[in-house]
Amino acid sequence: MTKISSNRRRVTLMDVARASGFSPSTVSLVLNEAPLARYIPEKTKQKILEAADRLGYRPDIFARSLRSQRSQMIGVLVIDLADPFCTLILQGVERKLLPTTYLPIVMDAHNQPAQLERYVEMMIQRRVEGLITVANWLLFDITVLEDIDDRQIPTLVVGRDLESPTVNSVLVDNEAGGYAAMEHLYQLGHREVAFVRGPRRMADSRMRWKGVRRFATEVSLRLNSALIRDLPGTMDSSSSFDGGLKVANELIQSGEKFTAILAFDDLTAYGAIRALSEAGRRVPDDCSVIGFDDVPPSALSTPGLTTIQQPMREMGEYAADYILKHLAHRLEDGSQPYGDSHLMKPTLIARGSTAPITKPVRKRK
Amino acid sequence: MTKISSNRRRVTLMDVARASGFSPSTVSLVLNEAPLARYIPEKTKQKILEAADRLGYRPDIFARSLRSQRSQMIGVLVIDLADPFCTLILQGVERKLLPTTYLPIVMDAHNQPAQLERYVEMMIQRRVEGLITVANWLLFDITVLEDIDDRQIPTLVVGRDLESPTVNSVLVDNEAGGYAAMEHLYQLGHREVAFVRGPRRMADSRMRWKGVRRFATEVSLRLNSALIRDLPGTMDSSSSFDGGLKVANELIQSGEKFTAILAFDDLTAYGAIRALSEAGRRVPDDCSVIGFDDVPPSALSTPGLTTIQQPMREMGEYAADYILKHLAHRLEDGSQPYGDSHLMKPTLIARGSTAPITKPVRKRK
DNA sequence: AGCTGATATTAAATCGAACCAATACACTCG
DNA sequence: CGAGTGTATTGGTTCGATTTAATATCAGCT
Fold first, then answer.
1. How many whole angstroms separate alpha carbon A231 and alpha carbon A226?
2. How close B217 comes to chain A (CA, Å)?
């Protein structure tokens, strides 16, 4: 029965030593099940364990860290906590770390690159043993991570391909996702599809588009270039709603006919839905809309949003596993397979925002 | 120009001492601007600072913590990170802590009381200097916080009134919120309002209802008891969508006439909207819906959700301030004004899900 | 008796910074 | 001239656990 001591002073290893009649060294060996404890008789061990338990001994984490030079902490740097994308990945990381002795330290850069840099500094100062960066949006300078690399801290980037030879990453197979989204619309009968692509510079957007085009080519579908638009370049996740709204409005204004919109991500899709609604076009009756990500609200809105689901929790778990693996093998094998990026399969989630094209599109003005 | 050293070995206080020609003691005094440093001439200080900078000295946080018995960490225990309510509070906390030397340590209980308990243990073990608990939903056992109190760790609960004499809290003025929501619907002309209240045992729900009734009494409006329903008791935040869907369906099935729904929170409101939609009733044309919380998706859905906004970031900031204040005065004045709960003002956010009652309600079957 | 090797335990060094008590020197003043 | 005060610096201890090297005991063997 472990008892929580309510004494004012901390219970130290020395106290346990005194109480059990052995030296601090012996107590330490026993409590840590160190190799040297193999010759210590069971009877002694019992006495020590009993004493430690009775006094409610908890090793002082400061002293232990100082001596062992280990923090037992893994930094998780997130570009924006309010972005559900980040949150879900975080939950995956946490789930994997829970049964270990490692503690995730979460820092939120609030979409500001400067914060991110400062936080990397803080992470180093706090001596994190590994670093996971969730930065789907920010196009940040890779030099920030050089310090990290310098200190032999295993690092992984989630949700973005850094195209750096020194840092590994895990992300969704954007091309497969783009392909699946286009395929879904095509199978519902849509031939005139409008596209709201992500910012030009984003690798994510380029890969998704590549998938879309690959499918179009396979079925010999010609894409109308007047229906292809990009979100503006300087964006963070929270502004993609506004971007989607604006670009969809332009599409509607253009007068080009389309029966579906394939949006860069869920928030962009919601912006498009708002624009359609304001123009008097119903979703999905008058126009289907498909997103990308499957953030939690997508299941709750009416209509539910059809989207390409990124396995975010799984990506978080992969990240944590990656770090743990490297931490475990750090001593025997220091070399990492650098520049690797692991792709995970996306899944189409069909909800209410897409529908078969049955009747001819009503034109309203 | 601060240079990041890339040497294999850490730069220690001793190194700076050797490089500057002074003793470690002197170096320590200067770098910490300790009281005793007042007699040290500027010239010496400059030399030491220069040496420290040149070598890229960073104090070892383990050693410092051990000696000073301070972790410089503040624990933030969150009932569910995926809940936007928690996320926003977290951002408030972080914003306040950013300019300080304190680091927030976030732990996510994933809606499981058992986790919460385990995490409190971990927090104590990691020696957090303060604790903020965001637990709007969970009706957890207060005994968990007893250990905390025992150790003189300043603690604050956000989003729930614990009704405990030993722990303070900050939360929104739920009664004022309920009042404002009802007032809004009334002013739009709604007289037949349906209510989806929260679980009976939740203090939040009771207070909101009190506000609703107070307004109704003031304008002599009789509430139809057939239109008053409760969400089931055993719930977490993620299931309130399903709850809202189910209860709203029951209301629709009941055949009672109503022109608006006042929901316990935003997710419940979204559940209700789904139910209405499935029954062929449009929002807000056929029925207005109002929520409570103003979680981020509420602004993005179509129609946007009218709701009572909780000042979540501000509550987070208040919490951080509270802890910082107590930490600052810990030594001179250990006594806390226990059992206090600070109320913050909610704000009505009118969006597209509520509308004036103009035409008579179409009845569809 | 002397040696080996397994068993059992501990003294002492270490991690790096903080800080109290001590020292050394230069002054001023009665 | 010795006591007192302010200025400048440092030696040495402390925080609490880990770990290496060392010591002590005893059984078994030649």
1. 15
2. 34
